[in-house]
Design a protein that fits this description.
By secondary structure, this protein is of the alpha/beta class. It is built from five helices and six strands; from the N terminus they run E-H-E-H-E-E-E-H-E-H-H. It has one domain: Alpha-beta prism (UDP-n-acetylglucosamine1-carboxyvinyl-transferase, Chain). Strand 3 and strand 4 form a beta hairpin. Helix 1 runs parallel beside helix 3. The protein is globular.
Length: 135
């Protein structure tokens, strides 16, 4: 990974005006490469950590305990084929893939297309090395 690693954070989701559940998967991805250990507690939806197993395939040190995920940041994620399970999880896998070493293939991207129009083009404009490949 290039540059300085972020610091791990703790986060608890809750209804508005608290931390929205829709960003917990993305913060999980952030914590996978952060310095230290972060905890994310999901209080709104059950079974909202489907992305965790996919991040483990990339070398993330992540464990689920009830409604909390504990993430110990690693220096570098490794590319792996991963499968999106929902809109937010797919966004988190794209984030993880962008910081991983090598080429990550995210399967079932129709999930991400439901909420992020032309995400690869927008990320390319920010300097990301990302492309859509035919199935």
């Amino acid at each position: 990974m290039k540059g300085k690693r972020p610091k791990a954070i703790d986060l608890k989701t809750a209804p508005y005006p608290a931390m929205p559940t829709d960003i917990q998967a993305q913060f999980t991805a952030l914590n996978t490469i952060a310095e230290g250990t972060g905890r994310i507690t999901e209080t709104v939806f059950e079974n909202r950590f489907m992305h965790v197993q996919e991040m483990k395939r990339m070398g993330a040190d992540v464990d689920v305990e009830g409604n909390t995920v504990i993430i110990k940041g690693v220096e570098q994620l490794k590319a792996a084929p991963v499968m999106a399970t929902d809109l937010r999880a797919s966004a988190s896998l794209v984030i993880a893939g962008l910081v991983a070493e090598g080429d990550t293939l995210v399967e079932r991207i129709y999930h991400i297309d439901r909420g992020y129009e032309c995400i690869e083009e927008k990320l390319q404009q920010l300097g990301a090395k990302i492309r859509r490949v035919p199935a």
